[in-house]
């Protein structure tokens, strides 16, 4: 027997005008309100769980997009030659440049951006040069993150 059936039977049982029946009807009303609240809380919990699942999926997708960047950085680090305690020069010269700029839409508060590099092609994901792979992964990551945080229309 479900809770609703139990409450229906109790409502039919306490139909008199005695003090005990009135008190029982009040308790039944309290139980009905509690059942409605419990159903509402369960619905809210289900919605939150769906939202969390969506956010987790988006997070996992972004982590997957970071993998080429992480691999390229690890490869670049592995190519370093140990030079002892003191190194001659801490930084190598720039090998790839990335340009970033604002791009305005039709509304004043709708500021977008562009990011690109003249030295990188879409085929550089498998380039032997780690700078090209890192730059391409950064550009792709920037656009993917921008797509995720775009305000809903």
SSE diagram, text form:
Elements: H1 3-13, H2 19-78, E1 99-104, E2 111-116, H3 130-148
Helix pairs in contact: 1-2, 2-3
Apparent shape: elongated
Round the mean pLDDT to the nearest integer and report it. 79
**N-to-C SSE string, H for helix and E for strand:** HHEEH
* Helix content, binned percent: 55-70%
Largest sheet, if any?
A: 2 strands, antiparallel
| Arrangement of strands in the largest sheet | 1-2
Q: Give the count of helical stretches.
A: 3
Which terms summarize this structure?
mainly alpha; 153 residues; 2 domains; 3 helices; elongated; two-stranded antiparallel ribbon
3D architecture notes:
This protein folds into 2 domains: 3-65; 99-148, no CATH class. The chain has helices at residues 3-13, 19-78, 130-148, and strands at 99-104, 111-116. The relative contact order is 0.09. The chain has 153 residues and is mainly alpha-helical. The mean pLDDT is 79. It has 3 helices and 2 strands, in the order ααββα. It is elongated and about 95 Å long. A two-stranded antiparallel ribbon has the order 1-2. Helices cover 59% and strands 8% of the residues.
Quick summary of this structure?
It is built from three helices and two strands. It has helices spanning 3-13, 19-78, 130-148; strands spanning 99-104, 111-116. The two termini are 47 Å apart.
